[in-house]
Amino acid sequence: MTKKMSIYMSNPSRQYSFLHNENGFSISLIEGHSLIQELSQIHNIGPHALNYYRSTVLSSLQMLNFLKPGENLGFYIDSEEPYYRFKIEISNNGQLRTLLLPEDFEDFPTKLTGNCRLNKMSPGHEPYSSILDFTEHPVKNLINEVLEKSYQTKSKIIISDDCSSSIMVTKLPPTNINKKIEDFDDLSLEDIIKKFDKLIKAALLIPDADVKTMEELFSQAGLTYLGSKEVRFHCPCSHERMVENLFTLSEKDREHIFQKRPVIETRCDYCNTVYEIKKEEIIKPLH
Questions:
Q1: How far is CA 47 from CA 52, 75, 82, 269, 273, in A?
Q2: Fewer CB within 10 A of the terminal residue: the chain, N end or C end?
Q3: What is the DSSP letter of 67?
Q4: pTM of this structure
Q5: How many CB atoms lie within 10 A of CB 65?
Q6: What is the pLDDT of residues 139-160, one digit of tens each?
Q7: The domain 239-282 is classified under which CATH number: 2.40.100.10, 3.40.50.300, 3.90.1280.10, 3.40.720.10?
Q8: What is the CATH code for 14-233?
């Protein structure tokens, strides 16, 4: 088995949550410097496609905010024009795996014709699925539209042009608590973003920051720090899973694969780990 090693960085990537009671909104900041560096090593993607990949990972990763303990989410973009496939699978604990296909994709698409699929798995519940079709839709606004249609939230995601960071600003629904706050100001989402423009720009420009730095920055603007979690690449693939995948094929197809050689190599698309599988392993199921 050949597996690429993770890259050590001084500070792991994190997702931070903040709340502003007086204006009734929350901010989620993802500082993804270490994560994007690791992904660029795992997947051999050209510079233009890497910029698109970085932007799409950092924006779709904000859906982590909508996961409860034990929940998992898969978000998939199937674009036909231009042709490419983007996948990201996220767990509530901050673990994720993601890929962009084909591997020789070398573009930064501005529009998309295809669909986006969202699958959420919750313990003890039926999976939730949502499919949205798009025709020549601006890629820049894609994730924001998915949030609006799939989650019905008043949110906007902003991506840094210079650093591997993203921010999601969410206007919260009014509550009885808001009414009791003497200085509560019910601003629109656009007004909130405009009012806190300097804070947003400053937060997006801090690479590889620590918790204390972020907490102090947002505290100065009147936001309360709610907590943070590490976000990191994790692929649960294994030799056993790869063998089990072969049993989804017919017996005839499995025999054909091993017809000319007793050992084959199979590679995980998410982490590029290569596994050697012997013919005798597919003679009968593992379980």
A1: 9, 23, 17, 20, 23
A2: C
A3: P
A4: 0.86
A5: 17
A6: 988 999 999 988 889 999 999 9
A7: 3.90.1280.10
A8: 3.55.30.10
